[in-house]
């Protein structure tokens, strides 16, 4: 079998197009412009790339974009003061603090200081709790993008066996919640899972969010399964720098029914969902109807 390649890049462009339409309607009918603030502490080169591309796409869909770049040794109090200012700023509807933060900063404290209504990453404990109890929330962008692609490819996901490899708060756990919300039978695997390969072989939907380059190989994949590769790993091969996922693309694609590539899969959908969440937050803040189909 040769897998269908799920084109996240094209899907993300469609989502951004829908966001842009809503944004222009908001401007015409309500005189409102959604605004997103991205906060980057320190100068991690990979983070720089995402922050730049987020800023560019935010402007492309017609939103107000603000970037705050803070020094590596920024005091926690200064970061919290910036967040308080952004929380109170009526032009800002979404706040994203790029993770990971430098080690001297308490990430939990920082994230939980963001107004939950502006928490477009969906990482605030209030949003985590709302998602876990099936209530309206801000849904983390990466899992939301994965769910959109899965729904688009399969339609109804109910009854499917889903295995999520990885249990981080930003990807694995919220991904599992969303799949459960769509009535999948969900298994969360991690570094202590016994016989990971056998667990993965039972998956109709296999989500790889491990942070280990090409760890999931074709022999982990049930024939015909859908593989969602969340991993972003920069490696060097044959003297060239390369971006690869947590799944080994060639061997997985030979067995799977469908697979997301890296680059061009989950990554672009993450940014598109960030813009969708900012739009949703703006509509909620102004008591306006939310766009359909851009959140769960
Ligand atoms: N495309 C996108 O938009 C995004 C991509 N990413 C990428 O997704 C990947 C995961 O990110 P993130 O969740 O933040 O990573 P973390 O490092 O926070 O979590 C990795 C998870 O994988 C598990 N794990 C590690 N090694 C193994 C192993 N050998 N077998 C089974 N499980 C293992 C860990 O288990 P344990 O808990 O037991 O330690 C942990 O739960 C990374 O490649 C990251 O770059 C992340 C965010 C967005
Ligand atoms: N608070 C917070 N929220 C995040 O959502 C967040 C974060 N911190 N920290 C880092 C991770 C990583 N992440 C990516 C987003 C887009 C691509 C992306 O667009 N990738 C392109 C390739 C880009 C390239 O070439 O580097 C692709 O896969 O096609 C990748 C990774 C969001 N993250």
Automatic annotation (TrEMBL):
Residues annotated as domain Tetrahydrofolate dehydrogenase/cyclohydrolase catalytic: 6-121
CDD domains to which the protein is assigned, alphabetical: NAD_bind_m-THF_DH_Cyclohyd
PROSITE patterns, per the entry: THF_DHG_CYH_1, THF_DHG_CYH_2
Domain of life: Bacteria
GO biological process, one term: tetrahydrofolate interconversion
PANTHER family in alphabetical order: C-1-TETRAHYDROFOLATE SYNTHASE, CYTOPLASMIC, C-1-TETRAHYDROFOLATE SYNTHASE, CYTOPLASMIC-RELATED
Protein family: Belongs to the tetrahydrofolate dehydrogenase/cyclohydrolase family.
Function (record text): Catalyzes the oxidation of 5,10-methylenetetrahydrofolate to 5,10-methenyltetrahydrofolate and then the hydrolysis of 5,10-methenyltetrahydrofolate to 10-formyltetrahydrofolate.
Name of the featured protein: Bifunctional protein FolD
């Amino acid at each position: 079998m040769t897998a269908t390649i799920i084109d996240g890049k094209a899907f993300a462009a469609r989502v951004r197009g829908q966001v842009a339409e809503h944004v222009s309607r908001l401007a015409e009918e309500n005189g409102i412009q959604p605004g997103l603030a991205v906060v980057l502490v320190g100068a991690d080169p990979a983070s720089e790339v995402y922050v730049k591309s987020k800023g560019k796409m935010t402007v492309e869909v017609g939103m107000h974009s603000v970037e705050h770049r803070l020094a590596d040794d920024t005091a926690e109090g200064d970061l919290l003061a910036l967040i308080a200012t952004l929380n109170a700023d009526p032009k800002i509807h979404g706040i994203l603090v790029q993770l990971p933060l430098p080690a001297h900063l308490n990430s939990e404290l920082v994230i939980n200081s963001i107004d939950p209504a502006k928490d477009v990453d969906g990482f605030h404990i209030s949003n985590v709790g709302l998602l876990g109890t099936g209530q309206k929330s801000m849904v983390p962008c990466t899992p939301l993008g994965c769910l959109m692609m899965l729904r688009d490819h399969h339609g109804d996901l109910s009854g499917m066996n889903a295995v999520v490899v990885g249990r981080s708060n930003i990807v694995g756990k919220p991904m599992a919640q969303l799949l459960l919300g769509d009535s999948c039978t969900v298994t969360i695997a991690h570094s202590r899972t016994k016989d990971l390969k056998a667990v993965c072989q039972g998956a109709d939907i296999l989500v790889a969010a491990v942070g280990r380059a090409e760890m999931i190989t074709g022999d982990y994949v049930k024939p015909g399964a859908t593989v969602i590769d969340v991993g972003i790993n920069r490696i060097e091969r044959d003297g060239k720098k390369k971006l690869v996922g947590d799944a080994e693309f060639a061997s997985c694609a030979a067995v799977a029914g469908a697979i997301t590539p890296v680059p061009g899969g989950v990554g672009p959908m993450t940014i598109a969902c960030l813009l969708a969440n900012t739009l949703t937050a703006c509509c909620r803040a102004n008591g306006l109807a939310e766009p359909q189909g851009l959140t769960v």
